[in-house]
Structure formats: C-alpha cells, structure tokens
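Bumping my old thread because nobody answered last time. Still need a sequence for this structure:
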C-alpha cells in the first residue's frame, strides 16, 4: 500500500457519499417527496472533494452554484440536514427555507448557493476583499460552470480580484455543457483557463475526474492566494452523468457521449486505482456498504422530520 492510499480512500468514501445522496434525491424527487427544480452533480464529485481538501474550512469560504449539493457534502454538511432541507423540513440546514438551490451552511465554510448564473463570483471577491482587511488569512473559492464564465459579473469579479490582488480562487466546473448547449457552441477557444491571462492572473487546467490532481492543483492556488500573490483561475474538466435537471432527457448529447462520460467518471476510476495499489476488494465493498447505510438512514431521518411551518416564513428577516 502506498503512502497516499489513505488519502485516496478518504476521497473515495466522500465521493461515494455525494453520489449516494444525489441518487437518493433523484429517487425522492421522482416519488414526489420533493418538489421543484433540482440539479444533481453526479459525475463531478472529484472536483468537490479535491478542491475542499486544499482548504481550511475554519476560515476559508466556498461559494458554489445552484448545483451545490456536492460542495456542501464535501465541506462536511451532514446528509441528514441536506436531505431535510431539500424536503422542506424543520431539521434542514436552513430549517427547510432554502431548498435545493438556495441553502447556506457558513458553519461548514459553505456560504450559500446562488441560482443567478455567475453571481457567486463577485460575492466571493467581496469575502476575499474582507480578508485583505481582517487579517483572517481567508481564501475565498468561487465555483461556477463553463457557461457562467461568459457572464459579465464573473469578468468583473476576476478583474477586480486581479487588480486588488485578492485571495480568491475561481474554479470552473467545465462539464462540457452550458445547461443544454455544448461548450464548443459557446466559445471559440475551449481551453477556458486561458482567459485568466487577460486579467494578469495565472490559469490552469486539471483533470476534474481525478480528486488527487484537483487537490494538488488547488493547493498551489490556495497557498499562492494565502501568501498574498492574488487570485487564480482553475478549470476542472469533468462531465455530469445525469441531466442538467431531473427530468432532462438529454437529447442534446450525441450518441455515445453519455457512455463515454460514465466510463470516465471519478468513482469507478479511483476504485480501479486503489485496487491496483493493493487495496482489497472487500475493503472497497465495506466502504460502499457503510456509505449506503448512512445515506438510507439519513434519508429516513429527514423524512421523519416535521415539515417547515409556513407561519414562520417571516422569521430571520429584517423589518
């Protein structure tokens, strides 16, 4: 067994948890226990666990998109609280008020999803600006999809962060589709990280289906930002193995595209690597069983939680 095997096993278990939660959310949504639009991240798990491994969540801040379940779980949000939130139950991380696309968990370093495409980038720049004054050593992470890189607010945030030398890492989850549109139809240059040069910041591209590679690339960006050298743009190349939303028939994907994405997805790849490094099949199966049990127990607990009371909707608001 190699020296890095324990860390890889940790990545494997955390990715399995994210995948298991997303699969259970899909089941609950199909059964009618959940309502509303829900965006799953199955296939992109390596981006979240790898990126978060490079952070200090006692002070760093993560600002994901509406596809944020994976970021939340990677940050340590309990699956019980996540299920309950999406189910609209009082035991939810925000008491059932945030739902799938709007919940926040600052106690875990996850400062809220945002369904306005790209809107998390200027908010993260604000958190980084605060860090420049409060001495916290905080690094902010703004995560968004490939399509969001075309949003004006993202350009403004990157330019502002570069000019001010702010401690923020911009993470592009390039899953090849801007909602239902291939990235090749959205931009002339598919190497999105090269846009960083226009702002005078470093940019890099990493295999987003390899959590170890993501972690190492993020460590460089995070340490650079923490040392006062300013922002960076990291493009993580991945693919989702589910639709853009639950119910998406994915007719826009060409024949064989989904099969190739499934063949390259991160959990199976990491299992093969761990087996090659000498990890017994029984140990991997035990992790799978432990995660599956936890997901099912968390789902049942959330379903047993009382629904949020509409009479409390005005609580926690400013008058």
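Sorry it took so long. Here it is:
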């Amino acid at each position: 067994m190699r020296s890095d095997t324990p860390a890889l096993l940790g990545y494997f278990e955390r990715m399995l948890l994210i995948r298991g939660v997303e699969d259970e959310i899909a089941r609950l949504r199909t059964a009618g226990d959940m309502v509303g639009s829900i965006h799953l991240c199955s296939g992109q798990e390596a981006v979240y666990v790898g990126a978060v491994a490079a952070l200090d969540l006692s002070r760093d801040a993560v600002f994901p998109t509406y596809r944020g379940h994976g970021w939340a779980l990677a940050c340590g949000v309990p699956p019980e609280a996540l299920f309950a939130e999406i189910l609209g139950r009082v035991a939810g991380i925000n008491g059932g008020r945030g739902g799938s696309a709007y919940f926040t968990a600052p106690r875990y370093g996850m400062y809220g999803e945002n369904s306005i495409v790209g809107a998390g980038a200027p908010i993260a720049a604000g958190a980084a600006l605060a860090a420049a004054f409060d001495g916290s050593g905080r690094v902010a992470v703004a995560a968004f999809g490939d399509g969001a890189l075309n949003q004006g607010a993202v350009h403004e945030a990157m330019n502002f962060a570069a000019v001010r030398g702010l401690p923020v890492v911009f993470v592009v989850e390039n899953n090849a589709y801007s909602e239902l549109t291939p990235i090749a139809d959205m931009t002339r240059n598919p190497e999105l990280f090269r846009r960083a040069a226009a702002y005078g910041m470093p940019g890099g591209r990493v295999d987003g289906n390899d959590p170890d590679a993501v972690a190492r690339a993020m460590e460089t960006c995070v340490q650079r930002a923490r040392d006062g050298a300013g922002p960076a743009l990291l493009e993580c190349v991945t693919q989702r193995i589910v639709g853009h939303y639950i119910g998406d028939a994915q007719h826009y994907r060409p024949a064989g595209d989904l099969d190739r994405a499934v063949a390259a997805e991160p959990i199976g790849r990491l299992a093969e690597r761990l087996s090659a490094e000498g990890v017994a099949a029984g140990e991997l199966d035990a992790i799978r069983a432990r995660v599956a049990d936890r997901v099912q127990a968390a789902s049942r607990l959330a379903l047993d939680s009382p629904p949020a009371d509409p009479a409390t909707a005005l609580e926690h608001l400013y008058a």
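The two ends are 59 Å apart (CA to CA). Let me know if any region looks off to you.
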